[in-house]
Write a structure and sequence with these properties.
With 72 residues, the chain is mostly helical. Helices cover 71% and strands 0% of the residues. The model has no long low-confidence stretch (mean pLDDT 84).
Length: 72
């Protein structure tokens, strides 16, 4: 029963977040996504060891794939 309540709360929060995102202006959406990308890049740079960063190099060797929004 408790698990069902947690699922219902999670679904409600997800629906609310989707509603808020869908009512944002395009500029606000762009700012939100760029902030998330910047934070992810900072976490990547801070916590991923240098040896592991080589695994995420882009095909052209200019940097990490996360810098370009691509997957390897």
């Amino acid at each position: 029963m408790l698990q069902n309540k947690k699922l219902l709360v999670f679904a409600g929060l997800a629906a609310y977040a989707y509603y808020k995102y869908s009512t944002m202006t395009p500029e606000a959406k762009q700012k939100l996504t760029s902030d998330i990308k910047d934070k992810a890049k900072n976490i990547f740079d801070k916590y991923v060891p240098d040896q592991a960063k080589d695994l995420f190099k882009s095909a052209d060797g200019k940097g990490t794939a996360s810098e370009y929004g691509t997957t390897v």
